[in-house]
Fold this protein.
Amino acid sequence: MSEPEILRCAQDDKAFMPKKKLRIAVLMGGPSAEREISLITGQAIYKNLDRKKYHVTAVEMTPDSRFFIPDQKKYLDLQNKDRKLFDLIFIALHGSPGEDGTVQGMLEALGIPYTGPGVLSSALAMDKEKTAEIYRVHNILTPDFIAFGPKEWGGERSAILKHVKKYLGLPVVIKPTNQGSAVGTAIVKTEKKLISKVSRIIKQFPRLMIQQFIKGQEATCGVLEKNDQAFPLPPTRIIANAGEFYDYKSKYAPGGSTHICPADFSSSVNKKIQTLALQAHHALGCRGMSRTDIFVADTGKLWVIETNTIPGMTPTSLLPEAASKAGISFPKMLDMIIESSLQK
């Protein structure tokens, strides 16, 4: 997409106005490790949806995966009598089962429209191993890695360590393949620490990846859609204040990070970041929104790390912040996500 086309998409002030007030359920919470962040994201969406256009209901997915309306103190039966209550589910769930295609599959089966990407795209983007494979198919530069589960770590540890030494080097990044918000992610600099960390983390998560460490600066770039056309938002450079990298504490603690948006890289680097974010969005089949994390290496190369299909929308979140820099208010951004979902 050329720069003028991107500008037209971002500055299109044609307001989305449904023919009738849409009944929107904001689905938040869930049983994952990211439950508390999801609740904050969901409340931010709930508060910013335009009441002139929508009847809005906050729906909490409980830790035991039931659906509850806090304001009415009642449970929903979406599979039977309550499936016609809403015109659209705005998914504000982070982690599994809300971000990995599971909830999307349930809603597809029930014929209930929802925001964000479909089942396959959600599943692929949530699995960091599969995401990296998709990037490579589309010639998107991403760090090398090795992925394994508890069985391999128990029986093939020496082979895994040999692979790390030969192809990845130290330091490396350890991360679960199916978690967001940097849950379980760590940077390790010695083999002893690597063995210790993996041995502990692998008890919590079914599959891990050890990834090549990229020395450089962290960046991210959101993508939205307007009239079926995806366009990138201004890139953001991220400075982690609370940790060694943009970890859970840096993401969500007050003052945990500094966001420079638009990023203070050169204009050519910023354009490359935007292009990569668009490429990742399309490669994974995203819809409505996404946010892709990218490292600008000290060598000058740009490395794509992962793509978030349901980016956080907390008070410190990057997507609404970047949208505002493009002249898109929080309510307008939500309108765009809803409109793209209804165009499916």
About this structure: The chain has a mean pLDDT of 90. The chain has three domains: 3-115, 124-141+215-342, 145-212.
